[in-house]
Structures are given as structure tokens and as C-alpha cells.
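testing teh design pipeline on a random one, pls ignore if ur not involved
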């Protein structure tokens, strides 16, 4: 099995490969269908559920292998209260209760309000879910997908898909996320030995 068969291909071919892989993944596809039904503003399923599913598919591992949870972003600046986000989280929990993986829902418009207390430094106010992807610790992880009403997959990948298909975890130095990049990279290498972790 050539796990690098999509590495270095044109972006349009990598996007097509990603769509094929996600459509064939029963967990991710169901999560996308359920997420679409929530009708959230500027939503996308992001990060591990996407790139881990690619690595599973290309190395012959089962769906869900190595995926801790499914991250669902949305961005709604109309109400930045905790209560408004919590109401969405509770509504989503009921919808996702039969999914075999937990789903973590976060309003990206609120991240700057709690980020300093949790991580000890500030982050910008995000005005879109796509903007949040640009601040991930690793460029490889910055990918999101949403399912359109026409059942097409819209891919948002500010740094492209080649790192994912090259099994390469590359740092994103826009913020000081050195430790997160290292920790996530080392975990990935234990689960998928084909991974290369680029140093910070």
C-alpha cells in the first residue's frame, strides 16, 4: 500500500482524494450530515477527524482510529455569552448522541474571551471559522470541511493539503505554540509511524 500516493499532486487532485476518503468514512460522513442539520452559522468539522481519517484510509486502519473527538466549529458573533454557546452545545449533544465519537462544539467568535485564562496568552478575535484555522499550532492540522445542501464537500485549508497527504506535520509559527505542535506530533507518530514531525 503506497500511503504517499497523493503526495505532491496538484491541489485539485488532492481535494478530490480528500472528498473520496471522507465520503467512504462512515463516522465522519455521518458527523457531517448531523452537523449540517444543526444549521449553525459558518460551521465546519475541523482538524483531527479530517486528517486522521486520511491517514487511516491510506494506511489501512479502521475508521475512527486515533481520533479522540470530532471538532465542530461555528462562528456566530451575534451573542458572545457563554449561555448562548452552551445552548448550542446541548442541542448538538442530543443530535450526536449515537455517534461513536464525542463531538466538541465551539463558537470561534468567543475563543478570544476564554483563551488567555486557559493558555496564558491572548489570541485574536476570530470573525470566521476559517480565520481560526490560520492560528493552529501545525499547518497540517488547519483543515475544515462542511457538507453543502447539495451533498458536496466544501474544503477550507489555508495551507493546502499536501502536508496531510505527505504524512508531514509542519509548524505554524504565527503564535508560540511550540509545545502543542510537539505534543500532537509525537502522539501522531505513535499512532501512524509513517508520520514525519518537522521541528519548530
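output:
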Amino acid at each position: 500500500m503506497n500511503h504517499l500516493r497523493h503526495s505532491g499532486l496538484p491541489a485539485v487532485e488532492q481535494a478530490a482524494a480528500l472528498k473520496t476518503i471522507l465520503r467512504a468514512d462512515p463516522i465522519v460522513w455521518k458527523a457531517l450530515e448531523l452537523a449540517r442539520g444543526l444549521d449553525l452559522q459558518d460551521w465546519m468539522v475541523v482538524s483531527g477527524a479530517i486528517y486522521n481519517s486520511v491517514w487511516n484510509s491510506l494506511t489501512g486502519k479502521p475508521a475512527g482510529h486515533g481520533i479522540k473527538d470530532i471538532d465542530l466549529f461555528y462562528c456566530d458573533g451575534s451573542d458572545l455569552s457563554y449561555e448562548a454557546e452552551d445552548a448550542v452545545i446541548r442541542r448538538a449533544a442530543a443530535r450526536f448522541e449515537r455517534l461513536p465519537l464525542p463531538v466538541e462544539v465551539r463558537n470561534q467568535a468567543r475563543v478570544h474571551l476564554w483563551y488567555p485564562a486557559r493558555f496564558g496568552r491572548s489570541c485574536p478575535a476570530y470573525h470566521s471559522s476559517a480565520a481560526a484555522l490560520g492560528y493552529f499550532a501545525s499547518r497540517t492540522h488547519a483543515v475544515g470541511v462542511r457538507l453543502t445542501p447539495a451533498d458536496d464537500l466544501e474544503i477550507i485549508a489555508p495551507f493546502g493539503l499536501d502536508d496531510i497527504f505527505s504524512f508531514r506535520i509542519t509548524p505554524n509559527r504565527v503564535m508560540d505554540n511550540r509545545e502543542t505542535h510537539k505534543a500532537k506530533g509525537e502522539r501522531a507518530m505513535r499512532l501512524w509511524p509513517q508520520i514525519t514531525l518537522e521541528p519548530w
